[in-house]
Specification:
This protein has about 230 residues and is an alpha/beta fold. The chain has eight helices and seven strands, in the order βαββαβαβααβαααβ.
Length: about 230
């Protein structure tokens, strides 16, 4: 049976690849987006996840169209990179409000229906930066590291209701953001990756598809790096 799926930040990049992967598996997939246009063939719901009222309205729209959300992928995120000495308090707090607190908002809203149904799959998209750290990204790294403790706490809370919660930590992935890097910077990154290449958005999507599917039914509280070996040991 088709499940009701919601992917936040699903109109481009990693989020869109995840949405397409789950839709290809037969699920009914909705995506939230804050700007731009909704992707063709998927239910697009405009939503800023820093606003609880917009989150609630988005879930109601998805529920009306395809039923209560059974699979949630919390992917929406932002960066505001700066060295700590120059970083404003707003640049720090706004990144946490989107990446970490935004995931809290959507997960809290999703688990209502999941607990009633006694089934759910939640996947939080973190980053290798949350495990390794990165100069100039203290705000981003803190938000992504926070998802690990958040996800594992939810896994313990919700396991008895047959709800799994897992964290995927992508490394450097071929997206618009990495495409903007210079050739020298890309070569430097690849030297630090044991597999010697950047990942693809499909690499992330396939991992999420496993966790959200029947094969991942006994996996919860896991942090799965998809980073070519960059963050091994963390």
């Amino acid at each position: 049976m088709s499940r009701s799926v919601l992917v936040t930040g699903g109109n481009r990049g990693i989020g869109l690849a995840i949405a397409r992967e789950l839709a290809a598996g037969g699920d009914n997939v909705a995506v939230t987006y804050r700007s731009g246009e909704p992707p063709e063939g998927l239910l697009g719901v405009r939503c800023d996840i820093t606003d609880s009222a917009q989150v609630d309205a988005a879930f109601k729209e998805v529920e009306d169209a395809q039923g209560p959300v059974e699979v949630l992928v919390a992917n929406a995120g932002v960066t505001k990179d700066q060295l700590l000495a120059l970083m404003s308090e707003d640049d720090f707090s706004s990144v946490l409000d989107t990446n970490l607190t935004g995931s809290f908002r959507v997960a809290k809203r999703a688990v209502r229906g999941m607990m009633r149904k006694r089934f759910g799959r939640i996947v939080l998209i973190s980053s290798v930066v949350g495990l390794l750290g990165s100069g100039g990204q203290a705000n981003y790294a803190a938000s992504k590291a926070g998802l690990v403790g958040f996800g594992r706490s939810l896994a313990r809370e919700l396991g008895s209701r047959n709800i799994t919660v897992n964290v995927v930590a992508p490394g450097f992935i071929e997206t618009d953001m990495t495409a903007a890097l210079s050739d020298d910077r890309q070569a430097e990154i690849k030297k630090n990756v044991p597999l010697g290449r950047l990942g693809s958005t499909d690499d992330i999507a396939k991992t999420v598809g496993f966790l959200a599917g029947p094969g991942g039914g006994y996996v919860t509280g896991a942090v799965i790096p998809v980073d070519g070996g960059l963050g091994m040991g963390h």
